[in-house]
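Bumping with the actual sequence this time:
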Amino acid sequence: MEEQDNHIKNQSPEDCEGCPVHSAANLMKLGVDMENWDYVVALAGNPNTGKSTIFNALTGLRQHTGNWPGKTVSRAVGGFEYADSRYKLVDLPGTYSLLATSLDEEVARDFILFGQPDVTVVVVDANRLERNLNLVLQVLEITDRVVVALNLMDEAKRAGKDVDDRRLARDLGVPVVPTVARYHEGMGELLAMVDEVANGKVVAKPYRIKNEPPKLRDASAQLVRQLQSVYPGLPNPRWVALRLLDGDERIIRAIQDGELGDLSQANALAVKPAADLSLEVLG
């Protein structure tokens, strides 16, 4: 696939540090065993975007279902091989956001935040793009290793909509691949882009909100410092800080009962007791 924008930088594998980037220890706690697999890919998206169709197209019969550990939420895991690498594909619950207002959202969010998948594919409905972009932007706040699958392009065309995938890629700062999954259109291009993001040949520069009010910026910076002190190596402490400032009960509870430490990287466990983290800034 052609380079879609200068926000997406092509580079040689030698420039990619620490690939793969997933946390095998965290993934094991989340019920995903990475033994004999090279990369893990998360598949996210709103309900009714064709996410399951893409999952089946990529994995075929190499899949199994079950529940997330300790949850009543079902999970499908499959695998595929591409360019001499073995990929484990985890189908996350269909959600409209990652704000953890439901168990499905909580599961999807925790996997992206703490499992640190090598690639997160966000499936969007090209015919209902505005509604779907809410989830895309939230995922981009957590990780920059994202590929957007612009699915149901045939329905958008029938509705008279001309979706400019290259413009969308420029605006989002991540690769966008047009697909019609039920007819296997675009699957080869999607696989190729997932592989390039996973092995570091493509590095994205995703769009993120930068015009934060000064008080919010100062408060989040203070929380980030505290989080990094208590949990060195915590994936995306800025995002966790923003959720704390928003009063996210799930993340606050994870701080108070030590769960955040349990989910953070193995070399950061038990550095300090969770009680050392002051939440006074939440006011």
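The tokens above came from a reply further down the thread. The radius of gyration is 19 Å.
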